[in-house]
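Q: Convert this sequence to structure tokens.
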Amino acid sequence: MYQASKFAVWGLAETLRIELAPEGIGVSVIFPSGMRSRHLETSEAAQPAHLRRPIAGDDDFAAMHESNPTMAQFLATPEEAATGVVDAILGDRRYVVTHGEFLEALDTRERELRSAATQAAGGNP
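A:
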């Protein structure tokens, strides 16, 4: 659900950016990466007692690390990640990446999406 929610917010932001542009209103999507914070601990503590369950176990962290092995190298505090975000929003930047290393993943996604679009258009991928 976490990932689905993030992609839903991204899609909504893209639509709002288009719809609100004539009003002079910009919409930016902020992409943070791994954070050094207590958000998992505090999220677990905030659960009602009758619903309380662990938020993330060792298997979850292992899977997260496997899906993005470099994330642990680029952890930031919330304060570090927030540096420059307000200026980027005021500058109407469509996307704001706070920290981390995503270039290889972005290149792979773009290449595969472009190949699928080329194939759909009748070209050779």
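Residues 2-120 form a domain with the Rossmann fold fold (CATH 3.40.50.720).
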